[in-house]
Amino acid sequence: MPRLFVPATLANLGSGFDALGVALDLYLQVEAEPAREDLFVYEGEGQVEGPDNLIHEGYRAGMRALGLSPEPLLIRAFNPIPLARGMGSSSAALVAGVALADRASGGRLGREGVFRVAAGLEGHPDNVAPAVYGGFVAALADPPLAIPLPRPEGVRFVLAVPPYEVPTPLARKALPEKVPLRDAIFNLARSALWPAALFSGRLEALKEACQDRLHQPHRAHLMPGVLEAIGKALAAGALAAFIGGAGPTVAALVREGEEEGVARALEAYRGEGRILVLEIGEGFFWKES
After folding, report:
1. Which of 79, 156, 188, 257 has most Cβ atoms within 10 angstroms of its Cβ?
2. How confident is the model at residue 83 (pLDDT cuts 50, 70, 90)?
3. Strand order in the sheet with 250-255
4. What is the mean pLDDT of residues 109-121?
5. 163: preceding bond cis by omega (within 30 degrees)
6. Would the pLDDT of 197 be above 90?
7. Pair 97, 55: CB distance under 8 Å
8. C-alpha 128: how far from its chain's center?
9. Using the 8-state DSSP alphabet, how is residue 205 labeled?
10. Helix or strand or coil: residue 169?
11. CB-side exposure of 258: number of CA atoms within 13 Å?
């Protein structure tokens, strides 16, 4: 039976709020087959039950976008992506569902269509785009547009994943409706550094590119010690460090061989949680199981 793999993702990358993201080498795995009624079998992080899950939701939306009636499916999912930790678990599930619809239709959506439908559902293109295309991606939701960026060699992500959740709606509510012009300019300049650094290979510029004034300082009270943890990771030699998505995970991009020192710098922040060391991931793909 063909099995679908969809990667975890990190959004924002510090300065690129709602615009930049990257895929991780940690994959939601999904199998599906026709059934008399929608059924869902889930294994992995947290608890997800019932046919109103995000994978079925994505599948139905994908079929509707094609003008087709969504036939009932038995979906089996194995999910190693931590839930509500800023690692794109929701986006992976929605992309998986839309990709199921694409396969059921013989590929009529294509990757661009999968991105368009999933981004419309999720509302966060910086999570959806890397789940579809892999690697680093710059993305917009309206109009739907995603452009893959160069993937540097010899780097990994060290992730400090605390034991508590930060739901995205709560993190969104913490943001101000207006920001000073100087803060907007600060972020615009640094978000532009991400593609420039990746295209030029000047990865040392990422330490400045990940600096942010639009969302991380305003959400810090939801994640005790998070700004200090980012500073410690950078001081320990990380190329970049930032809150993954809405948090609370702190992600540090490091050169191979420097993972241990950065992981030690993040131990206090992760507390009773865990440290993950992951490669840059691929966009969704199918494999025979």
Report:
1. 79
2. very high
3. 240-243, 250-255, 155-161, 274-278
4. 95
5. no
6. yes
7. yes
8. 7
9. G
10. helix
11. 18
